[in-house]
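Cross-posting from the modeling subforum.

Setting up a comparison between two proteins and wanted a second pair of eyes on the formatting. Protein 1 (sequence, then structure tokens):
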Amino acid sequence: MARRFDRPARSHPAPDDLIFGVNPVLEALAGRPDELSCVLGVAGARSAAPVIDAARRQGVAVELTDHATLERLTHGGHHQGVAARTRPFRYVAVEELLARAAPLLVALDGITDPQNLGAIIRSAEVLGAGGIILPKDRAAHVTATAIRASAGAAIHLPAAQVVNLVRALEQAKQAGYWTVALDEKGTQRFQDLPSLDRVLMLVGSEGRGSRRLVLEQADFRIAIPVRGRVGSLNAAVAAAIGLHELAQRVLSPTRAKDGGS
């Protein structure tokens, strides 16, 4: 979709418990309606009508408002006449995530920007990953900001939040996962990988990458070749490339379509 240039830039971010826009709110209503405290819709707005109807069918409270109020709440975001207030995101236990035995998982280390987190979650869900592992400290959490950035994909992708990422990677290894780290200093390429049944892809922050102790848990360190003058890729872009490459190796067409279940 082409970017709109007729809307002034937002001077402040929208509240972290507010998602907005028709598709993100509909995704939330379809996937986790119990995590919405209420849906706000502009009275009489045609775009809001199907969202309001869906909210009422799901038993979610609806509050009718006006365009100016929603503009103020979203700080000028592209709300399309609808928004929803969210309850705190419910994470799954890492043991539960690993027990599902999805062929492809993602772990993040040092991703602090919720926009980047949302973009990575979107790529992970679209490309067939079965879940994502996030550190509790010094990392972005799954908030409404990340859900908005994921275009609602965060509603569907299981996420585990862990205190000790190194320990979580050890647990993944015990569960049969091979860890493939994206590392700009790595000496291996995707084509160098052997046949793998289960893969956990590790993505670090831009510039610094993953922490040393975390990176030491990796079985493979893959560098994405860069040929331009800029030396590195945005973390979300690198993650999307890595997910695409790994999904082709561990997901059959059927498993890729159903998310590896």
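Protein 2 (same layout):
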Amino acid sequence: MATTVSPPAEASTSKFNPKGGVAPLRAGQGSEFFWRRLHSLTGIVPVGAFLFEHIMISNSMVARGPVAYSNTVEFLGGLPFVFFLELFGIWIPIAFHGLYGFWIWYRGVPNLINYSWAGNWMYSLQRWTGGIAWFYILYHVATKRFMGVDLHEHPGASFGKMQESMQSDLILAFYIIGTLSACWHFGYGIWLFCAKWGIVTGERARKGLLVGCLGIALLMSAVGVRSLFAFRQWDPQPTDPAGAKQIQNATEEVPKRQ
């Protein structure tokens, strides 16, 4: 009587099985390879570059006061073709990077309980911080860009508009969590980008790069959180068009709260 050969164990075809082990990682093939590379690239340029400028330059101006902050907003809002710059340089790349990132997260298997080495934790932390940062950005853009007074027309109201939100401890805490998540996601994302694209090779070089990338994340986090608290250091600033005009026309900085 002929014998039949049993198919391989279920563990060999599943993504993960504690007894069968973890299936080997495989690079994306065909169109998936292209989309994953594009996802990685957009995380650095333009999304990461915009985040770095937004935190380290634009938002840091809050430390100098409402007039300096509104001047920065006015300059950015007055750039040529600003609508197309925002659409193709910010909104579309952020939407693609975030949505495709959720798709990668959905298909991934971190296995933190069974395989709790540092790389696995970093993988999961990168996914969670990316998700938090994406919803934080959606909230920030919706409330500051598309609700209330138009900051492109009245940049003098920009300080007051943010300051108004920062008076709420709950919203401030949300902004802090969102800022920390975005900074970590970008900092560690630089390391992932360099490793994925073969820019840095060798164990020693990658460890050194990792330290540098985490340093970038910590620096951006410190500047970002400091900027959020700085909104509370001044007396309440105007958010109406008339008051915004006064801020724009001011020749001296508003004094700090005593």
